[in-house]
Amino acid sequence: MTLPQELLDFLRCSTPDAWVAQALEHPEELLIDHANCEKKAASTALNLMFRYTDKPDLLQKMSRLAREELRHFEQVTALMQRRGVVYRGLSASQYAQRLRQHVRTTEPGRLIDTLIVGAFIEARSCERFAKLAPHLDAELGDFYRSLLKSEARHYQDYLKLAGKYAQGPIDERVAFFAEVEAEAVMADDSEFRFHSGVAAQAC
């Protein structure tokens, strides 16, 4: 499964094989939390639209992104229904919070960091879909492959918007969050989730 090299370079490390093994041991939690992630991604896009009404490019990009994420949510829950997987509440992983706790609280830093964090979440999701797909049954593997193009575009949209609205280069902030994201991926989590970390390996 080939991903754009720029996306692989953007992420500081790849998902550990141990996480893939955990995913295969928790098929129901994988689908349920995937649905949750799509719903949260749509919510993030809508929140940005409400918060930054003076930015036409952002409004257009986030509107499209929210629609796509909700469509993915519908597709995941439909797939769950076919498999007899009941949608239920799951505790959230700490992944997103581990990134968002470093977002600056004043503008424009808050917007720039939020967009960079969004880029990392989308890029990691894309990388994990690609990592999982070869190990899944044909229906689920094909579905995850079908998500790669849109997830890769979402990461690019977030990153381009961050660059557009920054008052200078964003390389330093991207590098900072790359380190934070890599640490989140390798963190020792007690419960499996789509973005949970795995201990005992290093980037």
UniProtKB/TrEMBL annotation:
Q: Which SUPFAM superfamilies match?
A: Ferritin-like (SSF47240)
Gene3D superfamilies xref list: 1.20.1260.10
Transmembrane parts of this sequence = none
**So which residues are the signal peptide here?**
none
What GO molecular function terms would the record report? tRNA 2-(methylsulfanyl)-N(6)-isopentenyladenosine(37) hydroxylase activity
Task: Extract the InterPro entries matched here.
Answer: Ferritin-like, Ferritin-like_SF, tRNA-Hydrxlase_MiaE
Gene Ontology annotations of biological process type:
tRNA modification
From the Swiss-Prot or TrEMBL record, give the protein name: tRNA-(Ms[2]io[6]A)-hydroxylase
Q: What is the native source organism of this protein? A: Pseudomonas jilinensis
Q: What is the lineage of its organism?
A: Bacteria, Pseudomonadati, Pseudomonadota, Gammaproteobacteria, Pseudomonadales
